[in-house]
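About this split. The held-out portion is used to measure sequence recovery: a designer receives only the structure tokens and must propose an amino acid at every position. Recovery is the fraction of positions where the proposal matches the reference. Here is one held-out target exactly as it appears in the evaluation file.
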């Protein structure tokens, strides 16, 4: 999925990565939509939690399948509980 990033998502991914002190930092993406940015950040080494409560059930299934395949990516739908230690960055 990361290869198919739109120019806007790729630009924002690069911006977010430039702001991080290191790559293995927790990132929360609020309003992740289809998860393109979240998966791209996970592919870059970030520990991403993606949340979005506006998705249709079919889209939720698709993005949940992506979260299983991508290392460091977790889709939580509309239920989010911050992990201990907080979040290093928030995108979205």
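Reference sequence for scoring:
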């Amino acid at each position: 999925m990361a290869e198919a990033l739109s120019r806007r998502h790729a630009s924002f991914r690069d911006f977010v990565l430039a702001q991080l002190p290191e790559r293995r930092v927790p990132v929360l993406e609020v309003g992740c939509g289809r998860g393109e940015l979240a998966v791209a950040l996970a592919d870059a080494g970030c520990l991403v939690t993606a949340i979005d409560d506006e998705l249709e059930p079919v889209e939720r299934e698709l993005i949940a399948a992506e979260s299983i395949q991508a290392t460091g990516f977790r889709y939580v739908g509309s239920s989010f509980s911050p992990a201990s230690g907080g979040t290093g960055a928030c995108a979205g």
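Annotator remark: The chain has three helices and four strands.
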